[in-house]
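User: For a benchmark we're assembling, each entry needs the component sequences followed by a predicted structure for the full assembly. Here are entry 17's components. Please fill in the structure.
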Amino acid sequence: MDRLSKIILAGILILAFGVRFFGIAKSPPSLNWDEAALGYNAYSILKTGRDEFGKKLPLSLRSFDDYKPAVYSYVAVPFIKAFGLNEISVRLPSVIAGTVIVLLAYLFAKEFFKKEQAALISSFLVAAEPWSVHFSRVAFESNLALMFFLTGIYLFLKSRKYILPGFFLILSALTYHSEKILVFPLAVLSFIFDPGSLSRFASSSIFSHYPASLDLIKALITRYFSYFSPVNLFVRGTPEPTQHIPNFGMFYPLEFLLLVVGLYFLIQNFRKHKILFFLLVVSPVPAIATWNWFYPARVLPLFFFLSLIIAYGLYRILNKYTAVPVLVILISGVLNLLTSLYFFLPYQERGNWQYGMREMAQALTKYQDSHQRVVIETKTAQPYIFLLFYTQYDPQKYQEYSKDILSPRNSFNFDKYEFRDIYWDKDKDLKNTLFIGPESSLPVTPVYEVKDFEGNVLYRVAETK
Amino acid sequence: MLTTPPVELSEVLLLESLGIHVGPLILRLSGIVLLLLNSYLFSRLFKKWPLPFFIFLINPWTVYLHTFFTFQCTFLTGILILTIKNKKLLFLLLTLAVFVYLQKNISENFLFVSKITPANLATEINERQKIDFLATNKTFILPAVVRKITYNKPVLAFDKILKHFVSFFDFEQTASPSESYAITRLSGLSPKGNFPLLFIWEIPLIIFGIAISLKMEGKKWLVLFMISLLPIFVAEKKLFPQTAFLIIPFLLYWETVAIEKLLTVKKIRLVLVVLALFAAFEVFGYHRDFYTRPMKYKNSESYFYRQIADWVAKNRDKNVVVTTLFGPTDKMIGYYLGEIPANVSFQNFDLIKEATGENMYYIGLPGQFVKKGKDLEKKEKDESRTPIIEKINGEDELIFEYGESLWIGYQK
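Assistant: Structure for entry 17:
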């Protein structure tokens, strides 16, 4: 690696970190409930060594009875210690993982293609591609798991040893469910150590939806191909509202042509690149075992390996004639992505992110002290976690309430907080109560109105004496 | 059974514009003859004919096209002949002719490339910049230079065309449109009227076939394939089955190449037998549904045209008023019956507001008999002033809040 390459790579890494970190508290416009849960559990572990339900140093978090892998929360602990419990601390592990993945793209491409230029192109593309940018700006366990998984695979390819690569692969399997299936024997191990960790699979598995074997085979095949469907990858993206940047697929449309070129040249030398093809083909396997159709979070390794092939395609066609048009289209695409990311997403898509919960919690903090009871009506699922997160509720105190919560839980109430619909005709007779809910549920002069940045009323705060 | 799938409205309009009358049965038989001819021509691309012949014959896309777009399939015949004879220039000219044909015959609402005009692009760009501005609560706007690079007409036009091209490679629309729609609304298509164009197992075979063909025969087929894709730019993505049909021979060519290659590997013959059985189930299931359950894949309107025509044919002594609310019923009934009977008139009636004639039969949507809304089927007895004597069940609400079925009412 010469000096120029080092400078270029450093520049790409700085760019990657910058794009991932800039405005991270504002876009996406709010934490979603999974991020809030990971953050609050990290806070709880930091303060008490236990998760929100009082389980000591857990491998998986019960959370919303979905038993999230706990590694992300552990990784977030030092950031929360350093910067406090906020959006930046929760998302920072993902930002850093995303930046490391850019470096890994360079290393993998160097390993597979043995060309410095192709390796640099790979790292640049991964730094700027929609899938990588988006998953690195949100606290997705899958992004952290991808970093561990790729590190493990890379170390194995380089050293052909098992201990250190094995450590990273185990870590990846403990970080996200998909990697458990990719590193299959580890799924068995994790089940032995922590049976709850696989309960999520039982609920989302495709096998319970297709009792007939022929239908099941067809369902598996169709799902498998959906992950290679160019329209999903390059144009349409996913219907999952929090897993894409609006107006973009997982890649730029132009990259489809580069993928075809890359595949064309790599197939000519199939034997030489069989490891890359193997990794590509097995990557969607964890995702097809679940009910969802095109679910990007479960196939990040696939996107990574596709990026390498795309980069190889670009490397093969890049010459003095193609460089300018390709660069113009790519730069225009990247700028478009950034405007989508920083303007369009927080504005147009705020409904898909639990926008308003932070603002509501702030209002609550201001008015709650003088009331014995607080009734909250919100259409957001799992509302309690936002309250815990944004009010930085003492974890030790919450564990006193949570230890008795049955599974599945039928109520989110704790302390003086009640989460339910407000019936004002009846509820107005309650004494010394603070109400927070939509305008339609509180037809009364409010003490405060929670508004969004355009001045639209999100919640009303009303009280009874 | 052959005439169970309803005739496509566009086919009837085309016949009318040509001044030809071909009845539904003759039209279907012509389609089948053409399908057999094209299957034969396709098999000529190979040394041994049976395998390619059957692959072409049973393919969902070819069956669909030859059933609903019979005339268009003559272009496919031309393309096959020119491919066999290796006439590349004529091939290109015929593709362009198809482009022009489709441009003229597809409804303006669904056209694609002709809508990419500077004015439309400018509107879109302005709209997008407006959103960016509103997103900052009108406090910040990107510098003009950045906006010029980010949002400009040539790049937007290129982006649209490229996206349209990539959208064609859609495995959901190709192999499992209904299922993917049911689960995720992913396909972005309406739930009805979407045909699988290929069986799911054909996709890996085609990809494998492309790889073999590239290695053994070079880029010859790929070039022809790319040329034959030109007509997809005529119309929106949802009309791909109609606009991209010239590529069928190439896709099936690669599939056949792949199967022939696999058949030479003795070690996997048992696997192939199992897969062939799986495939046979798929093929049988598809053709059974296609010829016996048209409501599964067609919108109710084409089914209703046929049902109204049958009812009118059986009741030639009655005065009938047929709705025109959901489509050109006059044209379709005229087509099915050869002419419009004298006892039938067509109008967009509203029996809640209008006075009914005496001794008249009315055929229309429930919302034309009772006040429109939800669950109209239950309101028949209480609200309809005109007694309902018969109902034809449908599966889609063709007009919002007008109900799913077709009612026949009689006013004494």
